[in-house]
Specification:
Order of helices and strands: EEEEEEEEEEE
Strand content: over 45%
Oligomer: single chain
Helix content: under 10%
Structural class: mainly beta
Number of helices: 0
Distance between the termini: 40 Å
Radius of gyration: 14 Å
Amino acid sequence: QVQLVESGGGLVQAGGSLRLSCAASGSTSSIIGIAWYRQPPGKQRELVARINSGVSINYADSVKGRFTISRDNAKNTVYLQMNSLKPEDTAVYYCYAEASNRGYTYQYWGQGTQVTVSS
């Protein structure tokens, strides 16, 4: 089992910055991938950024050059630094982890944190 707790959301003006944190606990050594997703109002959840096996990183085209995902293994925490925020970045942001154990893959989600960007 892996537990994920997000923090750092809030209200910010367009052009501003926020840093989201996702603290993982439990069987963190089994995590093979960790990511940030977001769900804008009235839309489907979408991938924002992902770290795969601690090496490769993928970003959604809409956030490339503005958002940075990083991981502090000592603190079991993943961050999402969001710069040059736009109103269209408004969404609930979720931390997601994929873990592997005895040949099975498990998916875990945090509770989400609201990010609101005003124009």
